[in-house]
From TrEMBL, chain A:
Topology term for the membrane: Peripheral membrane protein
SUPFAM superfamilies found in the cross-reference section: FAD-linked reductases, C-terminal domain (SSF54373), FAD/NAD(P)-binding domain (SSF51905)
Matches recorded under CDD domains: GlpA-like_Fer2_BFD-like
Cofactor: FMN; FAD
Compartments where found: Cell membrane
Catalytically driven reaction(s): a quinone + sn-glycerol 3-phosphate = dihydroxyacetone phosphate + a quinol
Name of the protein: glycerol-3-phosphate dehydrogenase
Keyword presence, Protein biosynthesis: no
Keywords: Cell membrane, FAD, Flavoprotein, Membrane, Oxidoreductase
Natural source organism: Natronolimnohabitans innermongolicus JCM 12255
Keyword flag Nucleus: no
Gene Ontology cellular-component annotations: glycerol-3-phosphate dehydrogenase (FAD) complex; plasma membrane
Length: 587, 450
């Protein structure tokens, strides 16, 4: 039997979650399905730049104008996800004066506040800039936590009655003639919050309208109903440093190029990026030279990067699109604008639209436009409120901040927790229970971890993106075990073990790209801790035979033990009548 | 002028300490010095003395580690020193450790519960862990603390059952009396018990030991042993255990934990006390910053002539320079032992394009492409875990051509390569065996040269 909903959104990235929130706030019944975790596709794999629009001020002024508008809106509605770092477009001696002038004029044309700094002034703002930096344009770029922002959208959609299903992969589009009326999904561990080791199920979800917001994967979804969506996935690498070498977004002021941006992000700085078309968004090469290029090229702007420690690298895939027949060769030339493909107009197949292209900073505006389209299709008259209503965590932050105490936490921990939780801080941190720090690198307490577990089930990667636990220097080596401990007793031991292994392997995946210097030492320490101290690599509990291990054959202790202090000396190992089964070492 | 010794050991972890102790033990009046820079990695280690838990092929857990030694591949540190030396080294450790460690009564490995909940094979274990073996079939109550997120006792108990442990374990989580801050360090727990500080309980003020025993006692259902995370005292650990044991009427044991590890710290204390007793001069907090090679009084021309066609025309280290708070002090010795650790201890370092040994630049074999330094499964056969020096059977590090880097330099412990201590569970055993052999041989050679 199928479950029915009014609008079905495919894809749990910023676009999908933004649409789900928008439509749910307009009173529609919404279900969102996502193959993995929220943000798993492209949203969680971006550099964390909240565009001022300066980046597009020369090449694409429509996008630039939209960026500065949305930038200002997000500062209001998502204050707890945004850090107002400011940004610099930095000109080196070899970079073009003409382009610098065009950039400045472009910013002014688009309403982006822009100010020229001399090289010396720029180095006063960012002391690690190279000595020969010529000058810079200061713009209101910012840093944004894409995980927090996306999850806040999903939470608010749920608050407005939406159903959000993660780990629910679309396996078929339901099409009847020229009408798409729903999907079949495969739930990895049944519907609801994810639980490792629980049996999978399938479900048919029917809907009045389907929105394909799967970005780089939109072509794969379309193909399920024989629809062609010409998305051109383009990969980019990002390399994470262990500290913030800069506190301001640093852009290279030149037309286009790889490795031209550094974004301060929480405790780290993220170097980016490249732009290279790939054929399969799930399978493309991730190579060392790309990481080297980030470090070597950006060292021209910030020389200390050459010797600095990186903690991991990751690749994201842009969902670039251009209308058939445009024929742009270089992916960097493809527009960053988004496209709403109504398959009724385009292919004569009703019931679904696909969204492709676009960028994170303007996710809300995209969602608004798409939601308008869906409402029109369904004959619903309701207006968008997402630009005015703050997201959960950003309600009345200023007044709350003033009245909040530190919840018994050391102040750096409390400060960071409050930054992450925003106005939800009291609700989450005000507990009578012991609230020790679970992740030392990022200062994440038990209360935050448990709050995330409540939201997302046994999935520790979902806990990670909500809390930043395991995202610091140790990359989970010291804390992922502690995070897993918090799953118990809500989840049984086997589930906890599977969840821990999944997180540990996920952390390793990105750390592989940072394996030299300090981070290789860290990796060896992590390995030693998990393999030597805990024996997680050879855990007998993971063996198929289960009880194949014959404990009897091992040393069971010396049968003449230390004398008990109460004088009740007895031979260890001779209690309880098990003396016939002593280890061989005792014989 | 330089500070003169017979044997200079660089590195103050388990391997360096064993090397210095073995050198001091080998000949009378040997002048042995140990210089160490950073805190040793013993603080990260569980304090267990693993010898060999699994073969390099992953076979195990091995009941008898000594059985497997003969089959180890060429180049494995145990193969280099030979099985007999492994036994001798361990016996030497047993003598030094005395009552502080157990397990010497048998060749068999013990299975010890880990704080992650499963079990691991080890050859020697601290006295504090002796009552807690998983290969002992008495039931156990495991106790965790609400403020210590590293150990979840009920989960560990379930995990032990899943690992097939031959006893019933039950876990409870309690508030540790006297711990008022949620982020207290493990040393704070230990200190409370060491000093038996007065703490407030519902029954009024009592000593911390009594308060803890009373809290735990309420949960005890006749189990003959009770396990705690390894926070039961530091300097007076035995006394703390005895007091808890008496009050509970059950044996008390510790489950080894991750960093910072009190059993590791206790082992370090034990080794440093032994070094002092043995007359080894220890200087801490000082890095070796450079060395000078060349001909020395020890290398007479006749020797060189013999060496030239014998394949051993290696230089000798004349002296090393130690940075003592800005002052560069030369240290000269007949024999040198490098025990600076592996990647974790920074005795082996790396950059994007190379892996190297930072003091003497000894050859470290490694693939040219750093993407060949790892495999994709975090617990797969990791090449980086085997990074380190390649020694000859005298434990002299070899250069790329297979010749000794220096005639008077030996290496011991994790700075050696060719084995994956984490997968094999062989870290402490290799440090002990190679430290012992390097120390003895160095002292004998220095003694012969005197």
């Amino acid at each position: 039997m199928a479950n029915d909903t009014e609008v079905l959104v495919l894809g749990g990235g910023s676009t999908g979650c933004g649409i789900a929130r928008d439509l749910a706030m307009r009173g529609l019944e919404v279900t969102l399905v996502e193959r993995g975790n929220l943000t798993d596709g492209t949203t969680g794999r971006m550099h964390g730049l909240l565009h001022s629009g300066g980046r597009y001020a020369v090449s694409d002024q429509a996008s630039a104008t939209e960026c500065i508008e949305e930038n200002e809106i997000l500062r209001d509605i998502a204050g707890h996800c945004v850090e107002l770092t400011g940004g610099l477009f930095v000109q080196r001696p070899e970079d073009s004066d003409d382009y610098f002038r065009e950039k400045l004029e472009g910013c002014r044309d688009c309403g982006i506040p822009a100010r020229v700094l001399s090289g010396r002034e720029a180095r006063e703002v960012e002391p690690y800039l190279a000595n020969d930096v010529k000058r810079a344009i200061e713009v209101p770029d910012g840093a944004v936590d894409p995980f927090r922002l996306c999850v806040a959208n999903a939470l608010d959609a749920e608050n407005h009655g939406a159903r959000i299903e993660t780990h629910a992969e679309v396996v078929d589009l339901l099409r009847d003639g020229d009408d798409i009326y729903g999907v079949e999904v495969r739930h990895e561990s049944g519907p609801g919050n994810r639980t490792h080791k629980a049996a999978g199920t399938t479900e048919e979800i029917t809907a009045d309208y389907v929105v394909n917001a799967t970005g780089a994967w939109a072509g794969q979804i379309g193909a399920m109903a024989d629809l062609e969506v010409e998305v051109r996935p383009s990969k980019g690498v990002m390399t994470i440093m262990n500290v913030r070498q800069v506190d301001t977004v640093i852009n290279r002021c030149r037309p286009k190029g790889d490795a031209d941006i550094i974004v301060p992000h929480e405790t780290t700085a993220i170097l980016g990026t490249t732009d290279e078309e790939v054929s399969d968004p799930d399978d493309y090469p991730e190579e060392g030279w790309e990481v080297d290029q980030m470090i070597d090229t950006l060292t021209e702007l910030v020389p200390i990067l050459e010797e600095a420690r990186t903690i991991r690298s990751f690749w994201g895939v842009r969902p670039l699109y251009e209308p058939p027949g445009t024929g742009t060769q270089d992916p960097t030339d493809i527009t960053r604008d988004f496209f709403l493909l109504d398959h009724a107009d385009r292919d004569g197949v009703s019931g679904m639209s696909s969204i492709v292209g676009g960028k994170f900073t303007t996710y809300r505006a995209m969602a608004e436009e798409i939601s308008d389209h869906v409402c029109e299709k369904l004959g619903v008259r309701a207006s968008c409120a997402t630009a005015d209503e703050p997201l959960p965590g950003s309600e009345r932050i200023e007044t709350l901040e003033a009245g909040m105490d530190d919840f018994g936490l050391r102040s750096p921990v409390a400060r960071r927790s409050k930054q992450r939780l925003g106005s939800r801080a009291s609700e989450v941190l005000d507990t009578d229970e012991a609230n020790p720090v679970v992740c030392q690198c990022e200062g994440v307490t038990r209360a935050e971890v448990c709050d995330a577990i409540d939201q997302s089930g046994s999935d520790l990667n979902a806990v990670r993106i909500r809390t930043r636990a395991s995202m610091g220097n140790c990359q989970g080596g010291f804390c992922c075990q502690n995070m897993a401990n918090e799953l118990h007793p809500a989840y049984d031991e086997e589930t906890v073990r599977a969840a821990l292994d999944e997180l540990y392997q996920e952390r390793w995946k990105g750390e592989r790209h940072a394996l030299w210097g300090e981070q290789l030492s860290q990796a060896m320490l992590n390995y030693a801790l998990h393999a030597t101290t805990m024996n997680r690599d050879r855990d007998p509990a993971n063996e198929d035979e289960g009880d194949g291990l014959e404990y009897d054959n091992f040393d069971g202790g010396r049968p003449t033990a230390e004398t008990r202090a109460d004088g009740g000396a007895r031979l260890r190992g001779e209690t309880g009548g098990e003396d016939s089964s002593r280890g061989r070492g005792d014989r | 002028m330089a500070i003169e010794d017979d044997v200079l050991v660089i590195g103050g972890g388990l391997a360096g300490s064993m090397a210095a102790l073995a050198a001091a033990d080998a000949i009378d009046d040997a002048r042995v010095r140990l210089v160490t820079y950073k805190q040793s990695t013993l603080r990260h280690a569980s304090g267990l003395i693993d010898v060999l838990g699994y073969t390099p092929d992953g076979e195990g857990p091995l009941v008898d580690p000594f059985d497997a030694l003969a089959d180890l591949p060429d180049g494995h540190p145990y193969e280099r020193v030979g099985s007999e030396a492994v036994r001798e080294g361990l016996a030497f450790f047993d003598e030094i450790a005395g009552d502080a460690y157990a397990g010497a009564h048998t060749d068999a490995n013990a299975l010890v519960p880990t704080h992650g909940g499963t079990v691991k094979p080890t050859a020697r274990y601290p006295a504090s862990t002796a009552a807690g073996l998983a290969s002992d079939d008495r039931d156990a109550l495991l106790v965790g603390f609400k403020t210590l997120p590293d150990f979840e006792a009920p989960l560990a108990a379930e995990h032990l059952a899943a690992a097939g442990a031959p006893f019933s374990a039950r876990g409870v989580t309690i508030s540790f009396p006297g711990i008022v801050r949620d982020d207290a360090k493990v040393t704070r727990y230990a200190h409370l018990l060491d000093q038996d500080e007065s703490v407030a309980t519902s029954a009024g003020e009592t000593g911390a030991r009594e308060a803890l025993a009373r809290t735990v006692g309420a949960h005890l259902e006749g189990e003959p042993r009770v396990g705690f995370p390894a926070v039961l005292g530091d300097e007076h650990a035995a006394e703390v255990r005895a007091a808890l044991s008496a009050a509970l009427g059950a044996d008390v044991f510790e489950i080894p934990m991750g960093p910072p590890s009190l059993p590791g710290v206790r082992l370090e204390d034990l080794l440093y006390a032994a070094l002092e007793d043995a007359g080894v001069r220890v200087t801490s907090g000082v890095p070796v910053v450079e060395y000078e090679a060349g001909d020395t009084a020890g290398a007479d021309p006749a020797d060189e002539a013999v060496a030239a066609d014998g394949g051993s025309d290696a230089d000798r280290i004349d002296h090393v320079v130690v940075d003592r708070h800005g002052a560069e002090i030369p240290h000269r010795a007949e024999q040198y032992i490098l025990a600076t650790g592996g990647l974790v201890g920074k005795g082996v370092r790396s950059e994007r394009e190379r892996v190297f040994e930072p003091i003497f630049d000894c050859h470290v074999p490694h693939a040219a492409d750093r993407y060949d330094w790892f495999v994709d499964d975090a617990f797969g056969e990791q090449p980086y875990a085997r990074f380190g020096l390649e020694p000859d059977r005298e434990l002299r590090p070899l250069d790329a051509d297979g010749d000794p880097e220096f005639a008077n330099l030996r290496a011991a412990g994790a700075v050696l390569g060719g084995y994956d201590f984490a997968a094999e569970k062989s870290g402490a055993g290799v440090s002990i065996a190679t430290g012992y052999v390097a120390g003895r041989r160095a002292a004998e050679e220095a003694g012969a040269g005197r």
